[in-house]
Design brief:
Layout: H1 2-33, H2 42-54, H3 59-79, H4 81-100, H5 114-134, H6 142-152, H7 157-170, H8 173-176, H9 179-200, E1 206-212, H10 216-227, E2 232-238, E3 243-253, H11 257-267, E4 272-278, H12 295-301, E5 303-305, E6 313-315
């Protein structure tokens, strides 16, 4: 019962903070960015474009929710029920917020200062998204696409999302024919990305956990089943006690580090944990090495690249 109570408290706190984060997002977007007629990235940007075309302020939230529902329908079998249920909550709240708040603001809060409004709005929305991500929340949109891509391919998610946002922001020129608003849109994209990175202390980097616990089997199973991350079990020995022990090695993205900590703490609050930043993690579930082969080096090493399986090397002659 005590453990269930802790889980209930953490879950309730997460949902409250997610709502607070989304409210901050809605305020920053509605009071500073939208009145300057600036299109931002993601499904909110698509909804903004529909709003500029129709003149209906409620079309932002409606369009955003419709796109999220369509993406969730496609993602249901790929990412699983738990992700979809969690995302429906965030997508519903943010759609309601961006539907209700925009009509309350007739103009920007700082009249005659478009660049300042854009910067303030971007800072607020970046902080808000950081709060949502820290508390294991999701607002849908690019999160859904990223989750589907991560499950199916090794494509760089960050780069793909950057291309999508670039296209959405650039398309606003076709509506206003004002290059300054397009530039402001890119300013928002950069500031939001930086603020989210600042909030969750990550730029799609990874962290490496070393976990030592008597309950290593339960922790390994929980990390596999709930965090969906692999675990390497290493044989070790405590030099002071001279007793054998198991050491767990876990590598995950920084945004997932909170989940790992919670798993370990819920099973063994006395576990020994070290966390280190890791740059350049390649392989299944992470990025893919994208380097052209060096023919001269391959010849010296006596290896040929296997065309059908990128990154696999085939011996060509006996190595000395």
């Amino acid at each position: 019962m005590q453990l269930s109570g802790k889980k209930l408290w953490m879950s309730s706190r997460d949902y409250v903070m997610i709502v607070i984060g989304i409210l901050i997002y809605g305020f920053g977007f509605s009071a500073f960015i939208l009145p300057e007629k600036v299109v931002i990235g993601g499904v909110t940007g698509v909804g903004t474009i529909v709003y500029f075309l129709t003149g209906n302020p409620y079309s932002i939230g409606i369009t955003q929710y419709a796109i999220n529902l369509a993406l969730l329908a496609m993602a249901w079998k790929i990412v699983g029920r738990s992700f979809v249920v969690k995302t429906i909550f965030g997508a519903t709240v943010i759609s309601l917020v961006v539907t209700v708040l925009p009509p309350l603001f007739d103009g920007p809060l700082v009249p005659g200062q478009p660049f300042m409004n854009v910067c303030i709005g971007a800072i607020l929305t970046g902080i808000a998204l950081g709060i949502v991500f820290i508390h294991n929340g999701s607002t849908g949109g690019t999160d859904i696409v990223a989750a589907m891509v991560a499950k199916r391919t090794n494509v760089s998610i960050g780069r793909m999302m950057l291309y999508v946002d670039f296209g959405i922001i650039s398309s606003s020129y076709l509506i206003h024919h004002d290059i300054s608003r397009v530039v402001y849109g890119f300013v928002v994209l950069i500031i939001v990305s930086y603020m989210v990175d600042l909030m969750i202390n990550t730029n799609r980097q990874a962290v490496q956990f070393i976990i030592i616990s008597k309950h290593w089997e339960r922790i390994a199973e929980a990390v596999n089943n709930h965090a969906r991350r692999g675990v390497t079990v290493i044989d070790g020995m405590g030099w002071y006690t001279k007793s054998p022990m198991k050491v767990l090695l876990v590598v995950c993205r920084k945004i997932e580090s909170v989940t790992i900590f919670r798993i370990v703490k819920s099973i063994d609050s006395h576990a020994f944990i070290t966390q280190a930043n890791v740059n350049g993690v390649y392989g299944q579930g992470f990025d893919q090495i994208k380097l052209k082969g060096d023919e001269k080096l391959n010849h010296e090493l006596g290896i040929d690249e296997v065309k059908s399986e990128p990154g696999t090397l085939k011996p060509d002659k006996q190595m000395a």
